[in-house]
Amino acid sequence: MSPARTWRTAVSVRTGVRGYALRAVCLLAGGALALTGCTTNTEDDAPTAEKVQVAKVDAIAAKLPDKVKQSGKLVVGVNVPYQPNEYKDSSGEIVGYDVDLMDAVASVLGVRAEYQESDFEKIIPLIQAGTYDVGMSSMTDTKEREQTVDFVNYFSAGTQWAQQAGKPVDPNNACGKRVAVQRTTIQETEEVPGKSKACEAAGKPKIEIVAFDEQSAASTALVLGQVDAMSADSPVTAYAIKQNQDKIESAGPLFESQPYGWPVPKGGPMGPVLQEAVQHLIDAGDYRKIAESWGVQDGAITKATINGAVG
């Protein structure tokens, strides 16, 4: 089972937040999930990447629904923060890898992307209601979600561990190690606890799980050597490594990959248009440039698909 924004608690990992480690659900109240983030939605010290400029492609833009053509804008529902994919910079502007890619797609279509903040769990219902043209929140494409919306797949995410440079840690044999995670992510609730239980079953020391409310704090703990390793969603880990290349490095391969997708109205024309625009960016090399500018190229895809949920 893999996340990538699916609300991450032991409750319904496949239908929650985004997919992998992604953002946090802060509490359970009265049996219902309180789907509110545990972090602030601005990350003032987060560096942004240089924009990749792309041109309009008339043949693709002509296939846009009339509503979008006439308004000249693509209304995008987004939930922040989730660095490096979508978060606010110090000026309050929504930025990130997902934002740059969506902006590039909008340029191909000859429109502008208008980002409207939303609670994560409201994005799909508001797409169904016609309020948003598309959703963008590091959301994992799942078979269950595909019953209500279509997904334009644009990225592959999984779990990725990191370690201090030159101090190897085996994610499959981390018994006795201190491992940082973001609180309420699937890494804290399922992945690392599962590995810790395996250690104990084998008569080895358990993994000490060190949980932080914010992902940035977990990354900092690893950089400072306060923990031996960190487990997080693959683009999150990749971005942390990009910012601290002399301090931390990947530990083992990415695993349990699943596609991120942009949800769009079921059976409508928006999905194929966005898919074609993403594929154009892939073929032109702009997609790769955007991924590399954010350090998330390991999750880059070579073919844009619709409804590519795994399992």
Itemize the secondary structure elements and their pairings:
Blueprint: E1 4-6, E2 18-19, E3 27-29, E4 32-34, H1 58-61, H2 66-71, E5 73-78, E6 87-88, E7 94-95, H3 97-109, E8 112-117, H4 123-128, E9 134-135, E10 149-164, E11 178-182, H5 186-201, E12 208-212, H6 215-223, E13 229-233, H7 234-243, E14 248-265, H8 270-284, H9 286-293, E15 305-306
Parallel strand pairs: 5-8, 5-9, 11-12, 11-13
Antiparallel strand pairs: 1-2, 3-4, 6-7, 10-13, 10-14, 10-15
How would you characterize this protein structure?
The chain has 311 residues and is an alpha/beta fold. It has 2 domains: 45-155 and 258-306, Periplasmic binding protein-like II (D-Maltodextrin-Binding Protein, domain 2, 3-Layer(aba) Sandwich); 159-256, Periplasmic binding protein-like II (D-Maltodextrin-Binding Protein, domain 2), CATH 3.40.190.10. It is 28% helix and 26% strand. It is built from 9 helices and 15 strands. It has helices spanning 58-61, 66-71, 97-109, 123-128, 186-201, 215-223, 234-243, 270-284, 286-293; strands at 4-6, 18-19, 27-29, 32-34, 73-78, 87-88, 94-95, 112-117, 134-135, 149-164, 178-182, 208-212, 229-233, 248-265, 305-306. The strands form 5 sheets. Strands 10, 11, 12, 13, 14 and 15 form a 6-stranded mixed sheet that branches. A hairpin with a 5-residue loop joins strand 6 and strand 7. The longest helix has 16 residues, at 186-201. It is elongated, with a radius of gyration of 19 Å. The N and C termini lie close together (8 Å).
